[in-house]
Write a structure and sequence with these properties.
mainly alpha, 88% helix, 89 residues
Length: 89
């Protein structure tokens, strides 16, 4: 087993996790910030208010980027299956 190959595969997988989760996390952050500013401006102190807009924003982002996520995951899976004989030696 080549340690360098394993490190490269792990690095690619972790980068893919960041790229996949990034848009949804960013959408939740932006919506949460907007709702927090709205709550501060109107002095509403309801803890359940930001939940529904965040869920809706994450759902819409995942709906829009779902095909990209599937494509990238499939590409990584194919790459892993092709590299498996090299790493398993």
């Amino acid at each position: 087993m080549d340690a360098e190959a394993i490190l490269q595969i792990t690095q690619e997988a972790l980068l893919l996790v960041l790229l996949i989760s990034g848009p949804a996390v960013l959408a939740a952050f932006v919506v949460g910030l907007a709702v927090a500013l709205f709550q501060a401006a109107t002095q509403l102190q309801d803890h359940s208010l930001p939940v529904v807009p965040k869920i809706a924003a994450v759902y819409l982002v995942l709906l829009g980027t779902g095909f990209l996520v599937i494509r990238e995951l499939a590409t990584l899976a194919i790459t892993l299956y092709e590299r498996f004989p090299q790493v398993a030696q």
